[in-house]
Specification:
The complex is a heterodimer of chains A (235) and B (444). Chain A is α/β, with parallel strands linked by helices and 235 residues long. Chain A has eight helices and twelve strands. Chain A has two domains: 124 residues, Response regulator (Rossmann fold, 3-Layer(aba) Sandwich), CATH 3.40.50.2300; 95 residues, Winged helix-like DNA-binding domain superfamily/Winged helix DNA-binding domain (Arc Repressor Mutant, subunit A), CATH 1.10.10.10. Chain B is an alpha+beta fold and 444 residues long. Chain B contains nine helices and 13 strands.
């Protein structure tokens, strides 16, 4: 497995993985370690809860179904004890009810099996940066591009770009998460507000339309494709 | 109100009122007839006695004096005495006259007016003359209003009490039946936690039906819970290996050189994701049919959702040279679960795109019609035969004509499930040409 290009600029994190299936667990742990993170892998709920209460981890990856204490109870208990570390749930179920149940229990994100490592990596990176103060930004920047949040105008190299509402939303989403890979499903959730994958190439189409306006007329490419993972705008 | 009229207790009350009134009327009529004949008999007895008194007189002369003396003190409206002597002289306070219409009793006062009212008369030859005694029937006639009053006084309160009692009982039982009906409606809608809450004033039979409904709901709930446990176990036990396969395929994809082997890996990965998609659909279907999601309902703008979904499917449609369009209202608010509603629209669009040829036009519209919000997806493709309308929502059912198109046969089942969860009605129609799928929601 190759290190994910998108992870190269993420900061190093201490990650606790609680997953009872050995193959999946080692796969996640190995991938995250290759990205430079420090990973603790535990395969049952009770030991996992004890490890998590140490408070030493930046991100927790928790399987919904675990021997001992199940994932949902584990996270509820942690939250009850005041632990606020971001939690990414892994689940075999993936139904709406399940998803809402997971988020209600105190999970921050939700990933349905089977998933690709790129997806997991991007979501972990997003979670690691989550605790941000609400910024009173009025404009977003990347290179010579400026997106004015108040007037909704986008200017690159002094030239105003004419974007459709969805293209604008897509650009804003990528700019707000500058330097981090955004996967297809993250974009579907964030820009289209869809929590399921319609299996169409709507993301690709809109990214390519956006590129035609944002990148094509200029020398430097701002929107990067991260192979097997998603898209990213660098600073 | 109309339903109230048809309710059992009210019908029983009405029936009882009719029965009671008939019996009362019959018995009153019988006693009236009896009283009447008893009165008549007593008048006839009086007449016979009067006659006997006069018969005791020794001569015609004596009869005339007696008649005259008694008539002076008698009101002819009550008792008429008349004696016509053999010589033709008339004594008394009245006389019997005869004309074409029969006998009349007329007053002997000035004007000789006919006396009103009916009389019972007894006439006899006495000492060559004719003595007629007539007693008024007024007393008998007075019975009629008395009996009519008795009728009203006894019948009216009974009828009123029976009717209002029946009405109150009908209202109450209608309320109780409504409680049961609502619980059943919730149960049918998938909310298996619904129960009939019977009160202390419930009638025994309704309370028994209520507890039987509750028993049934509990059994259903238990078996669904068991089923859900099984399906989540299956999901876990099968999806974890699928995850392992996908993990290994991903690793394999990194290792193999481009070529035949790499193509095989790509195809296999596509198959694996197909398997997990079918899985997800089956699990979702089970969950939609359970109804617990109703707790998360919130106002959702169906029109906005349609615009988003059309945008999402636009690129795929363009590949097949199909045209997607949105028409209808700007907004259409319904109460529901957003993700499921988006998925429903997605499935309808996918379905339309899959079963129409290149160049087809597919239109999605949301319109408000009275208290309803109607979602319609119409295409100009081959459509489906009306006989198949009922069957296409069955799980894994596929039309003969679409055996060879992609899809798992779960799309419309999910649409149907989501519609039912939302209390909406799914129907199919002919778009002439093509298929028109309609989902009718109650407006939020």
């Amino acid at each position: 497995m190759q290190p994910q290009p998108g992870a190269a600029i993420s900061r190093i994190m201490k990650i606790l993985v609680i997953e009872d299936d050995a193959t999946t667990g080692t796969y996640i742990a190995r991938g995250l370690r290759e990205e430079g993170h420090v990973v603790d892998l535990i395969d049952d709920g009770r030991t996992g809860l004890v490890a998590a209460t140490s408070g030493a981890h930046d991100v927790l990856i928790v399987d919904r179904m675990l021997p001992g204490i199940d994932g949902l109870t584990l996270v509820k208990t942690l939250r009850g004890a005041g632990n606020t570390a971001p939690v990414l749930f892994l689940t075999a179920m993936g139904s709406v009810e399940d998803r809402i149940g997971g988020l209600n229990a105190g999970g921050d994100d939700y990933l349905v099996k089977p998933f690709a490592f790129g997806e997991l990596s991007a979501r972990v990176a997003a979670l690691g940066r989550r605790p941000q103060a609400v910024e009173q930004e009025t404009a977003l920047h990347a290179g010579d591009l400026t997106l004015d949040l108040l007037t909704r105008r986008v200017v690159r190299a002094g030239q105003e770009l004419d974007l459709l509402p969805r293209e604008y939303a897509l650009l804003e989403f990528l700019l707000r998460r500058k330097g981090r890979v955004q996967t297809r499903t993250m974009l579907l959730e964030g820009v289209w507000d869809l929590s399921f994958d319609p299996m169409t190439n709507v993301v690709e189409t809109h990214v390519s339309r956006l590129r035609a306006k944002v990148d094509k007329p200029f020398d430097v490419e701002l929107i990067k494709t991260v192979r097997g993972a998603g898209y990213r705008i660098d600073g | 109100m109309k339903r109230l009229w048809r309710s059992m207790p009210l019908r029983l009350a009405l029936l009882l009122v009719v029965l009671f009134a008939t019996v009362s009327l019959l018995s009153l009529a019988a006693s009236y007839a009896y009283s009447r004949s008893a009165f008549e008999q007593s008048i006839r007895d009086d007449l016979a006695q009067d006659m006997a008194g006069f018969r005791a007189a020794p001569s015609a002369r004596a009869v005339s004096i007696l008649v005259q003396a008694e008539s002076n003190e008698t009101d002819p409206g009550r008792l008429v005495l008349s004696y016509v002597t053999p010589s033709g002289q008339i004594y008394g306070n009245g006389a019997v006259a005869r004309d074409d219409e029969g006998f009349h009793i007329i007053s002997l006062e000035a004007g000789r007016a006919e006396l009103e009212g009916q009389y019972l008369a007894l006439s006899e030859r006495l000492y060559g003359g004719r003595l007629t005694i007539a007693r008024s029937r007024a007393e008998i006639e007075a019975l009629r209003p008395v009996f009519l009053n008795i009728l009203w006084i006894s019948l009216l309160p009974t009828v009123l009490i029976a009717l209002s009692g029946g009405f109150i009982l009908a209202r109450r039982s209608q309320r109780h039946v409504e409680v049961i009906r609502r619980a059943l409606e919730h149960l049918t809608g998938g909310d298996l936690s619904a129960r009939v809450q019977s009160g202390p004033r419930w009638s025994d039979d309704l309370a028994r039906i209520g507890s039987a409904v509750n028993g049934m709901a509990q059994a259903q709930e238990r078996s669904v819970a068991a089923l859900r446990q099984v399906s989540s176990d299956i999901a876990h036990d099968l999806k974890t290996p699928v995850q392992r396969v996908s993990v290994r395929l991903e690793a394999l994809a990194e290792m193999v050189e481009p070529g035949e082997a790499a193509d095989l890996v790509v195809q296999t990965r596509a198959e694996v994701s197909g398997i997990s998609a079918t899985f997800a659909s089956l699990l979702q279907l089970a969950q939609v049919e359970n109804g617990a999601l109703k707790a998360q309902f919130a106002p959702v703008d169906l029109a906005l959702l349609c615009r988003t979904m059309v945008e999402v499917y636009e690129p795929s449609a363009a590949e097949k040279e199909q045209r997607l369009s949105v028409s209808g209202a700007e907004a259409g608010l319904v109460s529901g679960q957003k993700t499921l509603l988006s998925q429903m629209i997605a499935n309808l669009l996918e379905n339309a795109m899959r079963h129409t040829p290149p160049g087809a036009a597919i239109d999605v519209s949301v319109v408000q019609e009275g208290a309803y919000v109607i979602l319609e997806v119409r295409d100009d493709g081959p459509g489906i035969p009306p006989a198949e309308y009922d069957r296409v929502t069955q799980r894994l059912y596929r039309l003969e004509q679409s055996r060879h198109t992609p899809g798992n046969g779960l799309g419309l089942s999910l649409v149907d499930g989501v519609a039912r969860l939302h209390g909406a009605v799914l129907s199919f129609g002919d778009a002439e040409p093509g298929l028109c799928v309609r989902v009718r929601f109650a407006a939020a």
